[in-house]
Design goal:
Distance between the termini: 96 Å
Strand content: 5-15%
Strand order of the largest sheet: 2-1-3-10-4
Number of strands: 11
Radius of gyration: 25 Å
Structural class: alpha/beta
Largest sheet: 5 strands, mixed
Shape: globular
């Protein structure tokens, strides 16, 4: 009998411990969800209309599924608007206007996109309760009146995909300075890799020239307000401010010996770049975060990668010996239509979304860089989170306009391709 009692005591003790563990796990899970507390009647029923330029927005749908745990009768209606940039103003003024819409910082201050700002709720209003502090401050739009008409939900940067398996096989470290980059390129070429570094080269927007030099260029004018003003006004004399960048891209092309003929065979800066990289013989492929977002879905489309998969990541291109620059840019932003028919619920969804947890979740689902302060959660972009603060630059903070950036892209493309001399490209500033 005593033995039976002891057995029962041991059994009950084990059950109690297991029960407490289960309770603890449950409590932990509960705590993880405690960040968001509904502020509206959770039985509210409505459709939230969101407009954007994507064909589909699966990452947003996943976020709405999470939101539906709190508001089960709120439905997402996502609409792709053709020719989005030119049509959003008309859509906002129509009878079926969206409640939330995609917005871009470069639209601010341009008359043709005035509606995209005028219709926007001030998301910095403390009464809305958005956790704006979760977002890196340097990619928030700074307006003249101090309002915040849009918040980044994804961010973007320039860099290069790195075939980690090649680097491990050859006993090399991923370069973090310009000298290291050149040495790695030389070593890889000696080891039989014909193209240590490649990139798209058929047009200027995200050519290998722009991807390599734009962060460097931002560093040359970041502290010079007069230079930024002249560059933005397309003053012809501002061409001299791009000279260091044109000289650097010339040096870069000579030192790395990027084969432009081979790069020209890459037909576009998205699918073709990814599939060329997945051939497995290119150690470094220059691209943008937008391109990186498409890698996971295209692994199965590459027969070579499927047969011989390898590890890869995304890192900055080091263009100086002070270390690589993290060019931090917003990718896509959301605005709330202050004239929308479901304003309270729209603001509630934004309050739910604008937190580190949800923004990181959505960015991971989309494959893009998160706009939050912690990038360590995603191995693909973790290298950018390790860049020192002094090496993080944002066109938003510097004040460069899209017009000035377009001039730089054109000039650096023509010099990189050998179509113009440095002096001629400088003289043409403002006329591209």
């Amino acid at each position: 009998m005593n033995i039976m009692k002891k057995v029962m005591c041991v059994f009950l003790s084990i059950m109690l411990i297991l029960g407490m563990s289960a309770c603890g796990a449950e409590k932990k899970e509960e705590t993880a969800r405690e960040g968001f507390k509904p502020s509206l009647d959770t039985s509210v029923k409505c459709n939230i209309k969101i407009a954007g330029g994507y064909d589909n927005f699966e990452a947003l749908e996943a976020e709405f599924d999470r939101f539906n745990k709190y508001y089960p009768d709120v439905e997402l209606v996502y609409t792709k608007v053709d020719d989005y940039n030119n049509m959003i103003g008309t859509v906002l003024g129509g009878n079926d206007a969206p409640d939330i819409y995609v917005n871009y910082s470069w639209m601010y201050g341009r008359d043709q996109y005035k509606a995209s700002i005028d219709y926007a709720e001030n998301l910095a209003d403390p009464a809305l309760g958005l956790d704006i502090n979760a977002i890196r401050s340097n990619i928030l739009l700074n307006t003249d009146d101090g309002t915040l008409p849009m918040v980044p939900v994804f961010s973007n940067t320039y860099g290069m995909l790195v075939n980690q398996s090649i680097f491990e096989k050859e006993g090399l470290s991923v370069p973090t300075t310009y000298d290291e980059l050149i040495k790695v390129c030389d070593t890889l070429r000696d080891k039989g890799y014909d193209n240590p570094l490649m990139g798209f080269s058929k047009e200027e927007t995200t050519s290998v020239f722009t991807l390599a030099i734009y962060p460097f260029f931002c560093g040359t004018v970041a502290e010079d307000k007069e230079a930024v003003e002249k560059l933005n006004s397309l003053d012809a004399s501002a061409g001299e401010y791009i000279r260091p960048s044109l000289e650097k891209i010339t040096e870069f092309m000579e030192d790395t010996r990027v084969n432009i003929d081979d790069c020209d065979k890459i037909e576009d800066n998205y699918d073709a770049v990814i599939l060329r990289f997945f051939e497995g013989d290119v150690p470094m492929m220059a691209c943008s975060g937008d391109t990186v977002s498409g890698t996971k879905k295209r692994e199965s489309r590459s027969e070579t990668f499927s047969a011989n998969p390898f590890k890869y990541t995304f890192v900055p291109i080091p263009m100086s010996n002070e270390g690589a620059t993290f060019l931090d840019m917003s990718n896509l932003q959301f605005s709330v239509n202050k004239e929308g028919s479901n304003l309270d619920v729209s603001n509630e969804f934004m309050r739910f979304l604008i937190t580190s947890e949800e923004l990181n979740e959505m960015a991971q689902n989309k494959g893009l860089m998160s706009p939050t302060k912690d990038l360590s959660f995603n191995n693909m972009y973790a290298a950018f989170g390790e860049i020192s603060e002094s090496q993080i630059l944002s066109p938003e903070e510097i004040g460069l306009t899209d017009d000035a950036v377009t001039q730089l892209r054109q000039a650096v493309y023509k010099v990189g391709k050998g179509e113009m001399t440095i002096d001629d490209a400088i003289a043409a500033y403002g006329s591209y």
